[in-house]
Amino acid sequence: MKKHAITLTVNGEERDLIVSSNRTLLDALRDDLGFTDTKYGCGTGECGACTVLVDGTTSINGCLTLAATMDGRSITTAAGLAHDGALHPVQQAFIDNDAIQCGFCIPGMVLKTISILADNPRPTEDEIRHGLEGSICRCTGYAKIVEAVQDASHRMAGVGE
Amino acid sequence: MEDLKVVGKRVERVDVRAKVTGGALYAADVQLAGMLYGKIVRCYDHAHARVTSLDLSEAAKCKGVIKVLGPKDVTQKEYNASVLDMMVSADMRGVLGDIDDQSIFTDHVKHYGDAIAAVIATSEEAAERAAEKIRVTYEELPVYMTAEAAKHPDALQFRPEKPGNLAFQLPEMAFPDNAYAWGDVEDSFAGADIIVEDSFYVPKQKQCQMEPGTYIALYDDQKRLNCWTSTQMPKLVQKKLANLFELPMTRVRINITVIGGGFGARLGMVLEPETCALAMAVPGRPVKLLSTREEDWVTSPSRHPGKYWMKMGFKKDGTPVACDARFENYKGAYYVDASGTAFTTGAWLGGMYKFDSLRYRGESYYTNQSICGAFRGYGNPQTNFVMEQMVDRGCAELGVDPIEWRRKWHKTIGDDGWCIGVPYNSCALDECLDRASAAIGWTEKRAKYKNQTGTVRRGIGVAVMNHTSGAMPMLLEHTVCDVLMHQDATVTINLACSDMGQGSHTTLRQVAAETLGFPYEDVHMSVGDTDAAGFDIGAHASRTLYVGGGAVKQACEDVRRQLFDRAALELEEDVGNLYMEDKIIHVKGSSNKSISVQTIADQGVNNFMNPETGELIGQPGQIQGYASFFPPHNAPPFGATIAEVEVDMETGEVRVIELVNAHDVGRAIHPGVVEGQLDGGAQQGLGMVLTEETYYDDKGICLNNNFTDYKMFGPSDMPKMTNILVENPDPTGPFGAKGVGEAGIVPPVGATANAIFNAIGIQILEAPITPEKILKALAEKEKGLS
User: Fold this and answer.
1) CB–CB of B680 and A139 under 8 A?
2) What is the ipTM of this complex?
3) Can you list the residues of chain B whose pLDDT is less than 70?
4) Which residue in chain A has the smallest CA separation from B123?
5) Could you tell me if residue A70 is inside a domain?
6) How far is B211 from chain A (nearest CA, A)?
7) Which of A80, A111, A128 is the last residue of a domain?
8) A64 touching B (Cβ < 8 Å)
């Protein structure tokens, strides 16, 4: 298997690594770089537990992305969202709205939310629900997650205004 | 009820900061020095076959391989991955007939995904590559996927001790005529004016907890077997592993990792035996076993599917005179929970309505399906699908309103609960029905949806349920709790109760803080280390808050009593004259006589002698609280759901528009936690009734053990939901609380089915109610009319 020397900027820090052509971004993040906050849920791009952000606010499935194709790109995982002990407003909204149960989907959900709100800062409930398709949660029935996204949207609008 | 300071508040959950930042360590995230990786070779070509040859040699030569193990290279002991056999007495175990029929690896494949052999290698990839080199040949055997096929006289026998492939039926010794029963149903039916009867099918639903099963085991240099697992039942798994590997409990340690959802899939052992067997083969090296989603699907238990027949009789005035039922479940390849679900499915039925007579028979048949065991509700959703549709058919024939009938005839305080002989001690189901009905506008909508003719038709339906908080009196209920008071007057609560994500560690901490009279922040939960924690049954049967909470409350009361006793000595007052406020114990009516908890706690640890007087300063000894708690009851939760649906008569599609869930929760220790349980339960209940089933082809090959082909309700499928928490404190629950873990999944099942009946005038007898089944039923009705 061919190997590739690549550089990823993960959560703001530059990392050099060598990956095989078939290495997924998910495995590279988890096993090579230790970012275990990115989860394996299905390996087929259905559940969104492996969601990460590329170059800011574009969400992708880490399990469907080959690490070698991400050379030179910037990746954000849930572990990179809090700054100086302060959580990202989306993270805080998930906590305050009781949207977290087992938590396994949550890093992906939070990152997906950031990408939804970047595209559409004031989404309707329907737009939120459609935006979250592809991210499976088996604990919450999505009710409080949707409320958290709405709340995050308000908070972030407040910050920006 | 006194003024509550922590209970009833939406405090921040104990685990959410770690979860939202990705710091929470699930089993897959745990990395140990020298870690090896296991890969199990499973049979995915057949559901029933004998292994005729197994060649491990090529695999053993692969790069990175440390060891290859076949059936003969691991313990030959058989086991039962379920823990039910540890929750009943030895006598009852004999009566029930539970058996050990699983082995680590097998040469007799009994289901798609059965385990044949394993590889241990230096990386996951190396293990996978080597596993592909293991050569197995099989002799195909006939496949039995249903009870009907398995009980055929010519069928091969799964186990010699279970003739007819009947893994379990209610035993004659405990259940005369093999039935859970009261009265004489034949007599009662003779006096019935209206009889309804039908045969239903309930589906094989999968928990689909987000974290696939992952396990690590290490047989260490002290000859101790360590297992990292997200099990729901650390103490029973510890004992099961001790039995399987013939070790004393002191040499088996379970380290609970953060649990990425359970819903029953982690009740008892899953792949802990396999992982530990691998670790025993390479002493001193930790071995990690990561399941793929597809593998997790067929190795962890599913909901019991099967045929469910029911007959109900009523008097013209609505009096329910008799109910007769039989659930023949398609157990799967191994025994596991064969006894438990076969019984409780009928127990929930028996616990619901005041029939003069009732007879329920439950039978579990071996089949070549993956194993069935615990899944949220444990038989209750199956019963809800059938019982609630039969009641609505009865109501339709009687011409009575389904809510009025239920209100009149449901069991209540003083009636036998889900187990005969333990009467209900609390019940607020009437209030649930009244408030749900008002919230959705039942009467108006029910009238409005009569005689619809369009393509898209609406319907509204109701269902009710009874459940339990803990499995008493059927099974042992017991939790041990220790409370350690530190010298700064903060406390650590130590117990083994798992939190699957439902929030139980948060609510237990609230119970502790409230009982102690301390701030929530002063309490720390130390959970899940079987070396440190005393006995606990585990997280099942909606029991953690009720039984675990009872233990926490009792242990904290012990601490409080010790604090007051010491304060009384120091202040030279009677205990009865003291009260505590903000962690300071005062003498009633005396503003300047007081002592702080901080002082008592510190003096207990740092008990110095006064050098001048030679007397000890304060009372010696670090304060510890302890409880070994057996609950007095099972604090029955009740609930009602009203569902509104829209059915497209041309496509058969069902859209759920609204659900109102009203639940008798006793007391909501944390309202957000309770709502979360009802929301999540509803998502699973809707899935069971409308979309979710694991399918097999006629050779027993599983067709949809993945998220691509198995349809769960997604964010945009979910209806508008309203939760109504009816707080009617249970006399035995901690601060009146009842369990809510399972209740939420149950009544959405029956309510949705009944809403479809209301919309189209036909009952669909097989779940999930797919568009195909609706179209077929509509076509058959049309044919019948023409």
Assistant:
1) yes
2) 0.98
3) 1-2, 785-786
4) A31
5) yes
6) 6
7) A80
8) no
Are residues A152 and A121 located together in one domain of the fold?
yes
**Which CATH number does the domain housing residue A113 bear?**
1.10.150.120
Structure tokens at B359: 């007879």
SS3 A15: strand
Half-sphere exposure of B439 (CA within 13 A, CB side): 23
A78 contacts in B (CB within 8 Å)? Answer: 20-22
Number of structural domains chain A divides into: 2
Taking an 8 Å cut-off on Cβ atoms, the answer to whether A140 and B258 are in contact is no
Out of B25, B26, B672, name the one closest to residue A98 (CB): B672
Q: Are residues A26 and A67 in the same domain?
A: yes
Verify that A109 and A60 share a domain, yes or no. no
CB A93 within 8 A of CB A155: yes
Spatial CA neighbour of A17 closest among A56, A75, A63: A75
- Give the tens place of pLDDT for each residue, B651-676: 999 999 999 999 999 999 999 999 99
Q: In terms of residue numbers, what domain contains A117?
A: 89-156
In a domain, A161, yes or no: no
> Is it the case that residue A85 has pLDDT exceeding 90?
no
Q: Provide the residue count of chain A.
A: 161
Pairing state between β B180-182 and B194-202: unpaired
Given a cut of 60, whether residue A13 has pLDDT beyond it is yes
Task: Write out the H or E segment, with its range, that includes residue B506.
Answer: helix B504-516
Same domain flag for A100 and A128: yes
Q: Which residue of A has its CA nearest to B718?
A: A141
Which of B14, B15, B19 should be substituted to probe chain A, the one whose Cβ sees the most A Cβ atoms within 10 Å? B19
A123 shares a domain with A56: no
* Same domain? A7 vs A32: yes
Q: Which parts of B665-719 are beta strand (E)?
A: none
Q: Is residue A25 part of a domain?
A: yes
**B297 with B204: CB under 8 angstroms?**
no
Give the pLDDT confidence score for residue B539 in this predicted structure.
95
Q: Which pLDDT score is estimated for B693?
A: 98
* Same domain, yes or no: A69 and A116: no
Mark yes or no for CB contact B679/A141 under 8 Å.
Answer: yes
Answer yes or no: is A14 within a domain: yes
Contacts of B50 (CB under 8 A, 6+ apart): B107, B108, B109, B138, B139, B141
B296 close contact with A: CB closer than 8 A: no
For A:122-151, CB contacts with B below 8 A are 126, 128-130, 132-133, 135-146
Q: Which string of DSSP letters, residue by residue, matches B581-633?
A: ETTEEEETTEEEEEEEHHHHHHHHHS--B-TTT--BSS--S--EEEEEE--S-
From chain A, the residues in CB contact with B707 under 8 A are: 41-42, 44, 46-47, 136
Final residue of a structural domain among A33, A50, A80 = A80
Report how far Cα B482 is from the mean position of its chain's Cα atoms.
25
Q: How many CA atoms lie within 13 Å of B664's alpha carbon, on the beta-carbon side?
A: 28
Looking at the predicted structure, is the pLDDT value of residue A161 above 50? Answer: no
Task: Report yes or no: A155 at the B interface, CB cutoff 8 Å.
Answer: no
Strand partners, B586: B579, B594
Residue of chain B with shortest Cα separation from A82: B21
Burial of B421 (0-12, 13-18, 19+ CB in 10 A): exposed
CATH number at residue A64: 3.10.20.30
Structure tokens at B611: 């050098």
Segment B401-453, tens digit of pLDDT: 999 999 999 999 999 999 999 999 999 999 999 999 999 999 999 999 999 99
Query: Is the per-residue pLDDT at A160 higher than 60?
Result: no
- Report the C-alpha gap between B83 and B103 in whole angstroms: 16
Same domain, A8 and A72: yes
- Contact present, B25 and A35 (Cβ < 8 Å): no
E strands, B372-504, in order = 456-466, 479-485, 491-495
pLDDT value for B590: 87
